[in-house]
Amino acid sequence: MSGYNTRVEYRGDAYIIQTQDKGLAAQYVESLIYKAGRLLASKRTFYTAFMNLPDVRERIERMIEDQHKTILGQIVEGGYD
Questions:
Q1: Is the separation of the CB atoms in 64 and 58 below 8 Å?
Q2: How far apart are alpha carbons 36 and 49 in whole angstroms?
Q3: CA-based nearest residue to 68, from 45, 39, 37
């Protein structure tokens, strides 16, 4: 499984965002958002709609990156205060 693991400081708090592909059997990308070691939220995005396309791997990689960047942006905009 590929993915990202990022630690970001915002207003004195440490957030950790973990985003990864849960695999072709599960068919979704999952992000977990932690603050001070506690799980705040999770986000799942399913990719079943393009499982049979030839570029499925590239699409999954883009989904992982886009979802991770979106959550990072939400944190620094105060979305998880």
A1: no
A2: 36
A3: 45
Chain centroid to Cα 50, Å, comes to 19
Determine the residue type at 22. K
Residues 6+ apart with CB under 8 A from 41: 32, 33, 80
59 contact partners, CB below 8 Å, separation of at least 6: 47, 50, 53
Pairing status of strand 3-10 against strand 13-21: antiparallel
User: Is the model's pTM score more than 0.70?
Assistant: yes
Can you give the residue ranges of every domain in the chain? Answer: 3-76
**In this predicted model, what pLDDT tens digit does every residue of 32-44 receive, in sequence order?**
999 988 999 999 9
Q: Are 33 and 8 in contact (CB under 8 A)?
A: no
